[in-house]
Amino acid sequence: MASLFDDEMNMLLEQSLPAREFLRRPRPSDPWFDSECRQAKRLTHRLERASAAASCWAAEFPADAVAVANAAAAKETWYRQRRAYRLL
Fold first, then answer.
1. Residue 12 domain-assigned (yes or no)
2. DSSP 17
């Protein structure tokens, strides 16, 4: 059940930014981007997220030497993997 607020917001959005349709043309993947590249890319992004989380934790508790060390180690691991991925 939609509320009066939702209805009013939808009306205002439709007036200021009318919905538009667009055509998406999917293109085939590059032939050199195989399962090894896909796996390396996933690992790189996973390590990037882990590094960001560790950095947030270290920023939250700057006096915690273990958290700061873990953040530095996570960042270094992510950087090493990113270099390996780019060389791949």
1. no
2. S
Cβ-Cβ contacts under 8 Å for 2 (sequence gap 6 or more): none
Q: What secondary structure does DSSP assign to 46-85, as a single string?
A: HHHHHHHHHHHHHHH-TT-HHHHHHHHHHHHHHHHHHHHH
Taking only the tens place, the pLDDT of each residue in 6-55 is 989 988 988 888 888 888 898 888 888 999 999 999 999 999 999 999 99
Q: Is 23 part of a structural domain of the chain?
A: no
Residue 30 within a domain: no
Cα–Cα distance list, 80 to 6, 47, 49, 65 (Å): 48, 10, 14, 23
Cα–Cα distance, 64 to 28 (Å, whole number): 48
